[in-house]
What does this fold into?
Amino acid sequence: MAPLLSVENLSVSFDTDDGVVHAVDGVSFQLEAGAVLGVVGESGSGKSVSSLTLLGLTRSARTTVTGRASFDGEDLLAAPEERLRRLRGNDVAMIFQDPLSALHPFYRVGAQLSEAVLAHRDVSKQEARDRAVEMLGLVGIADAKRRLDSYPHELSGGTRQRVMIAMALMNDPKLLIADEPTTALDVTVQAQILELLARLRDELGMAMVIVTHDLGVVASIADEVAVMYAGRIVERASTETIFDAPEHPYTWGLLGSMPRLDALDGADLVPIPGRPPSLIARPGGCHFHPRCPYVREAHKVVDPELVAVEDDPAHAVRCLLPSATRRRVWQELRAGVAPERARTDVIEAEEGER
Amino acid sequence: MAEALMEVRDLVKEFPIHGGVLGRPVGAVHAVDGVSFDVLRGETLGIVGESGCGKTTTARLLLRLLEPTSGSVAFEGRDIATLSRRELKPLRREMQMIFQDPYSSLNPRKTIGSIIAEPFVVHGVERDASARKRHVQELMDLVGLNPEHYNRYPHEFSGGQRQRIGVARAIALKPKLIVADEPVSALDVSIQAQILNLLRSLQRDLDLTLVLIAHDLSVVRHMCDRVAVMYLGKVVEVGDAAELYARPRHPYTGALLSAVPVADPRLARAARRQILTGEVPSPSSPPPGCRFHTRCPKFVAGHCDVDEPLLTDGDPAHPGHLAACHYPLGDDEGAATARPAA
It folds into this structure.
């Protein structure tokens, strides 16, 4: 069976006054019906742009999109705007990161929710309104009927995001692209929403792409995870592997940066030094090399490919270090060794042997 | 036990709701409704809770950026809630705030140097321009900014660097107390870790007392010595962080802890999640009795919805671990909702 969503070598660049921004650079992934892919990365990693591009939301005269993307056998990148408009909000729905700018400030919530149904289905206004009340209830908004008459500015950030989620679910989509769906929500509500999304996937067979910076969110819901950095997927694996046996230094950095409830007292976080590169003038060689504690001279010049590791075809890593070396470093890090020390222990020891 | 730097007693803040054609007050949002706690000298106190629980209002009341409706906030024994503006000004030097949004909390028309120097100007210290510049550059260095960027503007900095600017401004006058309202929630994970490590090392080095307002329980666990959990304008549980996270007493705390996504897929899927139903009721008409009773898994009709529980000591073995619940979680129940150790 062909996958529901298939993306091949997708690149997106924006021509700006400052130069060409390489927002997405050669991204490939596939998603089966009912499966959940977590796309993890920090701001500027290209995770949002890749999902926006799939729905034709980055199209403009100054945007260059190359590669291929097909949804349910349909070519998304070549589809005319009219066709995409019928797809969006219907078979493919999207939840955006910023609920305030995604909701129209002049219209009541009820009108905006009803519109989502009325645009795609032949239903009466009352039916659309009833559906809106039902969906608001589903996402945990109390007093849903009265909320229909609220304007977005009258709602808290959390409630606004829930309205957005309700709107996306109005037409029972086959694919839900959720860009930071729970970032604006409280933990107890986040737990409700994640459970709700998991239930929708199970009951409706809804596939999901969850774009997030929060590894905790993907751990609980995703089947597979793609870690993005500077416009590229740097590591892709099953969710278990990403947490148990990650092989990319950036993934290690993300894991080390996260405060955890089960962490030992007084343990300092291990942040990634520096900050993400400019996407206009990306560093040569491996894009992560300026922040990588394990960099070798050659890595500043040679550009790594996303290559599957030897014994796990589902696990691909874009790193120039040999897999065996990466595994040794991860063992050290996992045991609580600091990155500088792990470098001395593994990388420099190996160089000494040569 | 360390002495209290700040004592908060029965603090109440109501925001009137205006309605009708004449805009008369028709009700009130009880944002903070009778909150009492101490902030001990040198500690990091975390205040956690969901949106609308009153944690940010509490933060602002602590610094009297809002006028309390009633109650007292004593800083080193002086009730700042009743001081006049003039009496308050010298105390403002001792108490600083770090804001959530590093974009809107810095004036875009001012250079970084003058933003960080602003507290000196306001309080009339470091009047000599060259000494002031030197001092600002020391601060920049301390928080990990390049002192040569003194003349740059906020838009030239990334979110994490802007938050460092906010931190530099907050520590400029060597305050005794810093209230940080969601200092890292707007930042990327890797940057967040940098700022958290910075706050921790500054706290150790400068002997600061820190009140950290956050919704992220992992951040609070990582940073705090003691934690106060708020729900609908009330503190429902307060205690030593390790103890409270290991053995939550209040069912709300238990539910909060179990709701935190765990970055470990096996644990995440195996965990017995206690998912609360419904959402936080409106603070304009809070439920009678225990405010949590509408969502509480241990709700007992006729008691919880009538009688409001007070913050009390549950276990003599852990003095200072207080919970406001008629039917607190036992050790095994509490531990079940808490996270298994790695």
In short: The radius of gyration of chain A is 22 Å. Chain A has a mean pLDDT of 88. Residues 240 and 246 of chain A are 9 Å apart (CA to CA).
